[in-house]
Amino acid sequence: MGTPGGVVIVAGPSGSGKSHLAATLGWPVLRLDDFYRDGDAPHMPASSLGLVDWDNPASWDAEAAVAAIAELCSTGRAEVPVYDIATSRRTSTQVLHAPGGRFIAEGLFAPEIVDACRDANLLSQAICLHRHRLITFVLRLVRDLREGRKSPWVLARRGWRLLQDEPRIVADAVAHGCTAMSPRRARALLAGPPRQRAA
Fold first, then answer.
1. pTM of the full predicted structure?
2. Distance of alpha carbon 191 from its chain centroid, rounded?
3. How high is the pLDDT of residue 66?
4. Mode of pairing for the β-strands spanning 123-129 and 102-106
5. What is the pLDDT of residue 178?
6. pLDDT, tens digit, 9 for 90 and up, residues 14-25
7. Among 32, 113, 132, 166, which is most exposed with the fewest C-beta within 10 angstroms?
8. Which pLDDT value is given to residue 23?
9. pLDDT one-digit tens code per residue, 166-182
10. Are 108 and 32 in contact (CB under 8 A)?
11. For the chain, what is the largest distance between any 2 Cα atoms, rounded to a whole number of angstroms?
12. How far is residue 81 from each of residues 26, 30, 34, measured CA to CA in Å?
């Protein structure tokens, strides 16, 4: 076991409450979705609709995300990208501060980096938010329409596909070492005293 602190990785289907959990706790948050690649980057994966498949990990820069986590754990600060989902590109950067090296990293592809963070002794905990998938579908669609993330047609089609795929998404996160739990249980768990980093 290492020293207390480290990153708490929060995974879960889109719309499962990852951002809301982080905001409720008031912890520093590394938004992993800001590590998406630009929509016109070479070799972006395509969906069956002929659009960029934003649910494919190949659309995301895992190496850069892990490097930012390592810097935050080591120094308590890191310069991270700011990504605009509506235009599908990075628009700027910002400096994120994590005093004591304890913070949340949340995003759609969070399970993809659990093993790398554990191997580098950066990981405190890894959880996957999970609730009834119809609730997640509705909350996700309302959020995405409110924020104008994509056209309503694209959002509805993507949302229906994610609804059907949600059990696999949760199972994959668990296979990567995340513990599945409700947002309420996660709040209670993380509001307690810090755990040591996973060995």
1. 0.77
2. 19
3. 97
4. unpaired
5. 95
6. 777 787 888 888
7. 132
8. 82
9. 778 888 999 999 999 98
10. yes
11. 48
12. 21, 10, 6
Q: What tokens does 27 get?
A: 């912890």
In the numeric block, which tokens belong to residue 10? 């929060």
Structure tokens at 99: 């005093």
SS (H, E, C) the chain: CCCECEEEEEECCCCCCHHHHHHHHCCCEEEHHHHECCCCCCCCCECCCCCECCCCHHHECHHHHHHHHHHHHHHCEEEEEEEECCCCEEEEEEEEECHHHEEEEECCCHHHHHHHHHHCCCEEEEEEECCCHHHHHHHHHHHHHHHCCCCHHHHHHHHHHHHHHHHHHHHHHHHCCCEEECHHHHHHHHCCCCCECCC
Residue with structure tokens 């004591």?
100
Q: Domains plus CATH for the chain?
A: 6-190 (3.40.50.300)
| Residue in this structure with the two tokens 């996957």, named with its chain if needed | 128
Query: What CA–CA distance (Å, rounded) separates 64 from 131?
Result: 30
CB 87 within 8 A of CB 25: no
- Which residues of the chain fall below pLDDT 50? 1-4, 199
